[in-house]
Structures are given as C-alpha cells and as structure tokens.
Amino acid sequence: MWREGDVRAGQTRFFVRSYGMGAQDRPVAEGTEPDDTLAVLLHGWPQDGSSWSRVAPLLADAGYRVVCPDLKGFGRSDAPKHGYDPPTLADELSQLIQALGARKALLVGHDWGGAVALATAFRHPGRVRALVTVSSPFRQLDLIASWHIPLLNLPLAPQLAFKVAGGPLTRAVIRYASESDEPFDDEALDRYAAAVKASPSGWLAYYRTLSRRALLDWGVRRVRRVARFLPPPEAPHRLRVPAVVVWGDRDRVTPFHLATRVAHDLDAELVAVQGVGHFVHEEAPQELADAILALAGPAASTSDLDTAGPT
Predict the structure, then answer these.
(1) pLDDT over 70 (residue 242)
(2) Is residue 97 part of a domain?
(3) Could you tell me where the DSSP H helices lie in 148-247?
(4) How many helices (H) and strands (E) does the chain have?
(5) Mean pLDDT along residues 124-129
(6) Of 31, 33, 25, 29, which is closest to residue 9 (Cα–Cα)?
C-alpha cells in the first residue's frame, strides 16, 4: 500500500509516496540505525510521483523501501520561484535522502528526474548507492525532436496555455511521446494534468534553467570542435557511483540516437528497451525494474556497491 505525506528538505516541502518494506515518510528516531534500503524514484515532465506505481512494487519485492516524491514545482510539492539550478536541486535531494532516514539511496530518474538524480550523483556521490537514468539526456540535445524546449522557454505563453488548457495539452504530449496507450487511462491522465496545472511557473523553471545551461554547454562544445584555436571541449565529469542508462528505442522526444552518447559520456552501460517510447517506466515497468536490479541487486546485497561515506 502507498503511504503519503510531506517531507521537508532544505527550504522545500516535498510531497512523497512511500511503498515497500517499512515504508515511512519520516526520519528514523535518534539513536536508531539509518535505513540503507531506500530507493528514490524521480519522475519527469508532464507527470508526478504516482507515475512510478508500476515499478515501485517490483523494487519493493526485492526488499527496497521505495519513495516517489513529486519534484519541486510539480504536483503537491512546493513550487518556489527560485532554486532550480543543479546545485540547489542536488542539495535538496541529498537532504531529502537524509530526512527519509537513509545514509544513501538508489536513485532512479526519468526525464527531468534523471537530470536531478545526475546532479546529485556528481555533487553528493556519498549519498548515492547507484544511479539509473531513464530517457534523460546529458550534455546532448536534439532540438528538432525536442521542439517543445524552445516553446517552453517563451515568456508568459506557456504558463497561460497550461493554466487554460493543461488537460488537453498534457494528454496530447503523453499520447505523442508514448508507443502504448495502455498505461495511460483517464484517471492517470487527469492526475498528470492536475500536477502540471498546479503551478506551471514552477516546472517551467526546469526548462528555463537546466535546458538553457544544457543548450549553452552544447553550443560551446560544438564551437570548440570547429574552432581549432580554442581549447578542446571539456571532458564530462566522471561519475563515482555505479550507473546505467535506460532508453526506449522508439522515443520521439529524446531520440534513441542520444542514448549512446549519454552512456559514453557517463561511462555507463546502456540498456535499450525495444518497442517503447519516452515513458519507459510506465510502458515497460518489468524491463526497467530488471535493469535497475541488474545494476543494484536486491536491497539485501546493496552494501557491496559503494563504500564511500556521505558528503
């Protein structure tokens, strides 16, 4: 059964859903041993934490305590005007892991959730036991396929559009980006529409902060490749945690050709899920859970993955 509640991390209140062994949404009591069976699943746009409802039970069966927060700016979590830069997002997620009574967590992130998980793994590797990113570009862009990114960077228009027609727009996005309609019944689509309509200015900050940084980084690297008199492109930072990249081979919005480059830059294994679109966690939950457990193993054996202390 899901348990729901609020957890504060830094200046942000996160609405979380917990599932699995000893599921709880509060810190452990003082003097007790921290829980190292935590798995934190981070959703992307245009969804909320409930999108993990098919994956969470599979990880819980492997011994994990699964927590699925609504990201800041989405759903029932706080949506402040500021604080969507990678360091702040990473610091808050690190604090959330601590507030949930764990020293470190298995992080799984889809879309923007993958970007937040990556920022945390780079900045706070001691809080991350293992990392799985799902359909989440890193240092790579395809603005022809991801034509929505420039549109969502426009001033005012996106906020007004999603306030007025958030339901139809959310349905259209999910239908376009997925290969299978089966996971997306009317109840789920209504829930996701409510999550993005709650505070469009909040989640739009991801596009206006993270995507602009990614676009600038991408442009600078392309110029450096052409202009030989400039320093060579900066090499990607190396992850210090075990990682795997999972991608649907029929993803229309973050095309599969990006996947090999992302896996290369992260020095991570790539798992291609056949016949699946952008929403791998809903379209192919068993395949995703298998990839997660192939990397991290069941909760009982996760202590062998990483011995680094928290940062």
Answers:
(1) yes
(2) yes
(3) 148-152, 157-177, 186-197, 200-226
(4) 10, 8
(5) 96
(6) 25
Q: Is the peptide bond before 255 cis (omega within 30 degrees of 0)?
A: no
The domain containing residue 111 runs over which residues?
3-303
215, pLDDT greater than 80: no
Return mean pLDDT, the chain.
85
Burial of 32: CB neighbours in 10 Å, binned 0-12, 13-18, 19+: exposed
Residue 158 has pLDDT above 90, yes or no: no
Alpha-carbon gap, residue 255 to 141, rounded angstroms: 9
Is 27 domain-assigned? yes
Tens digits of residue pLDDT in 89-99: 999 999 999 99
The pLDDT value given to residue 163: 86
Q: How far apart are CA 303 and CA 193, in angstroms?
A: 39
Arithmetic mean of pLDDT, 177-203: 93
Name the residue type at position 95: Q
Give the Cα separation of 133 and 107 in Å (integer). 8
Domain count for the chain, please give it.
1
In a domain, 311, yes or no: no
Task: Please write down the long-range contacts of 169-176, taking CB distance under 8 Å and 24 or more positions apart.
Answer: 170/46, 170/196, 173/46, 173/148, 174/46, 174/279, 176/252, 176/253
Neighbours of 19 (CB within 10 A): 22
User: The domain that contains 12 carries what CATH number?
Assistant: 3.40.50.1820
- The mean per-residue pLDDT over the stretch 291-299 comes to 95
Query: Edge-to-edge, what's the strand order for the sheet holding 128-134?
Result: 3-9, 12-20, 65-69, 38-42, 105-110, 128-134, 243-248, 269-273
For the chain, what's the residue count?
A: 311
The CA distance from 252 to 165, in Å, is 23
**Which residue is listed with tokens 């030989």?**
228
Residue 308 lies in a domain: no
Axis-axis angle for helices 186-197, 157-177 (nearest 10): 150
